[in-house]
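so ive been stuck on this for like two days lol. basically i have the seq below and the ligand is coenzyme A, smiles is in there too. i just want the complex predicted, nothing fancy, no docking runs or whatever. if the output looks off dont worry ill sanity check it later, just need somthing to start from for the group meeting slides
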Amino acid sequence: MTEVSVQHIFGNHQEPLGLECWRDDRASAASRNACDHLLQGLFESGLDPQQPASARVLVWREQQLVASAACRRRGWPLAADRMVSGAHVGYVCSHPDFRGCGYALIALRRLMAEMEAEGWLPGILHCVPALVPFYGQAGWISVAAGGIYSQASGEGRLDPDPVMAWDPRPQASLDGLCVSPFPLGDDW
Ligand SMILES: CC(C)(COP(=O)(O)OP(=O)(O)OC[C@H]1O[C@@H](n2cnc3c(N)ncnc32)[C@H](O)[C@@H]1OP(=O)(O)O)[C@@H](O)C(=O)NCCC(=O)NCCS
């Protein structure tokens, strides 16, 4: 994906929604600012130019940004001689005033379509246990009981939350990703 893609769809309640999908360096300033504002309010950080997303989806309802999701291409060393590459999904969120409307799932599914089109597979994400059913609705499966993040000190930081994976390719098996704890690498 090189340009910003814009699409219009109807949401679960048949309201018109605008879907934007972009690489972090291609978005308009207005979209970047709106996204940064939403992320700052929900996560510890907003858009990070040092760690740009490979693809980021924004869901708009009229002029209101209601949900977003992003992924970053990367690889994971599952064994000394086995590196798997794909995309790490993160920053999946919806605006607090628009929860339970299906918008987060719409953002996630649009992002997954982009990952499939680009071949950025498998997808990996790390979430709190309460969100396993949410991601499960989109086809994600738990593959590990925890993940290890690398730190500047060189030591790994163990996070016990589940790691989930998704790979729609016909021959794909997620069995090989069942490595606990999963080597997530640097945090995103
Ligand atoms: C998690 C989050 C994205 C869900 O957003 P949302 O707008 O409520 O999600 P949607 O409306 O798209 O939900 C779609 C489905 O997932 C379900 N779901 C949403 N959150 C859930 C939760 N915490 N536990 C179980 N199911 C959940 C909904 O009930 C709905 O299912 P239904 O269609 O059967 O009713 C939102 O709560 C959020 O932004 N949280 C803060 C940021 C965050 O923690 N992101 C996750 C990073 S891993």
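The chain has three helices and eleven strands. The chain has one domain: 5-185.
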